[in-house]
Specification:
This protein is mainly α. The protein folds into two domains: about 210 residues, HUPs (Rossmann fold), CATH 3.40.50.620; about 70 residues, Tyrosyl-Transfer RNA Synthetase. The strands form two sheets. The protein has a three-stranded parallel sheet. Helix 10 runs antiparallel to helix 13 and helix 11 runs parallel beside helix 13. It is elongated and about 75 Å long. The protein starts with a strand and ends in a 6-residue tail after the last helix. The structure holds adenosine-5'-diphosphate and tryptophan (TRP). Tryptophan binds next to strand 1, helix 8 and strand 4.
Length: about 325
């Protein structure tokens, strides 16, 4: 059975771009192999130095996945920090990583350009990510297109280790780039992203949700005028939530005229509320059950450590790292 692995950085609360671009695929792929999903709290630390928020986001994202339908009995769901072999392997890989390889990484440059402090953790982020993947002998890594280079670096580092220490110690993973999903637009029409402050959160509700939906940017066409659903941000979001029949119906109303953006936004608001209604109920219950969430992650961590050690022991041995305990 193939091992599927992916990580989620707990650097904020997830938005609907994260849901359609990543979370939904993670959950549906569980049946296709032995799935490992972890909360990348060490990665989050490279940009978030606030104890309470890191704690809140880490437990929060776990609650979100569980509320959205992840069955912890059918996969291994855990905290990155519960598997110390990951940071151990990252150090060993780092010793084989040319600085020039990291200097080519675009994600680092992008993040620094966005104003994040240029720390060593951010610079070597792809090495830790490679360790995350290689430590479980992962076969398939479902990620968004923005992670392509990190996966190439991972394959490069696995190849280097195997070459230098002459053996097939680390398995080269196949990237699985989820490109079929169109980029979800934010309320200002740019890519929805927490860095742009233009998100609709999965679990936004009430006034907050309404305010965001009503402020989605549209062109200035009047109520009576025919409109093009193909270029409208509101319609792009409607498409994610509505059935094909409903989409066609709304598209026809756009083209016919006499249907304003206000109508479309109301429709979208109702669709979002309906789509996440059950998950929202489950999320509310989980909010008061930190113990349950920690139990799930603890059990996942136990399983993940067992797997990690089977990969790590021969790696230490191959590299000549002695262990005396
Ligand atoms: P953000 O841009 O908000 O910081 P992340 O970089 O943490 O989001 O992305 C986490 C996952 O969600 C990635 O797999 C990414 O490809 C996906 N994702 C983020 N924003 C979008 C979007 N607007 N549309 C589709 N997928 C997205
Ligand atoms: N860098 C990934 C992101 O920003 C998160 C991540 C960390 C990850 N380690 C990973 C993804 C290992 C896949 C595999 O979305």
């Amino acid at each position: 059975m193939k091992t599927i692995l992916s990580g989620i950085t707990p650097s904020g609360r997830p938005h609907i771009g994260n849901y359609f671009g990543a979370i939904r695929q993670h959950i549906t792929m569980i049946g296709e192999g032995d799935a490992f999903y972890f909360i990348a709290n060490y990665h989050a630390l490279t940009s978030l130095n606030d104890r309470d928020r890191l704690d809140e986001y880490s437990v929060g994202i776990a609650a979100d996945y569980l509320a959205l339908g992840m069955d912890p009995e059918k996969c291994t769901f855990f905290l990155q920090s519960d598997v110390p072999q990951v940071t151990e392997l990252a150090w060993i890989l780092g010793a084989l990583t040319p600085v020039s390889l990291m200097e080519k990484a675009v994600a680092y440059k992008d993040k620094v350009a966005q104003g994040l402090p240029a720390n060593i953790g951010l610079f070597t982020y792809p090495v830790l990510q490679a360790a995350d993947i290689l430590i479980y002998h992962s076969d398939v890594v479902p990620v968004g297109a923005d992670q392509k280079q990190n996966l190439e670096i991972c394959r490069d580092l696995a190849g280097r280790f195997n070459h230098v220490f002459k053996g097939e110690y680390l398995k080269l993973p196949e990237p699985f780039i989820v490109e079929s999903v169109a980029t979800v637009p934010g309320i200002d029409g740019r890519k929805m992203s927490k860095s742009y402050n233009n998100t609709i959160l999965i679990f936004d509700e009430g006034k907050e949700l309404k305010k965001k939906v009503m402020s989605i940017v549209t062109d200035s066409r009047q109520l009576e005028e025919p409109k093009d659903p193909g270029t409208c941000n509101v319609f792009a979001l409607i498409k994610l939530f509505a059935t094909p029949v409903k989409q066609a119906e709304i598209a026809a109303q756009y083209r016919a005229g006499g249907y304003g953006y206000g109508h479309a936004k109301k429709e979208l608001l109702a669709l979002i509320q309906d789509y996440f209604a059950e998950a929202r109920d489950r999320r509310r219950k989980l909010e008061n059950d930190r113990n349950y969430i920690m139990d799930v992650l603890r059990e996942g961590g136990r399983k993940a450590r067992l797997r990690a050690e089977t990969v790590m022991a021969p790696v230490r041995e191959a590299a000549g790292i002695l262990r005396n305990h």
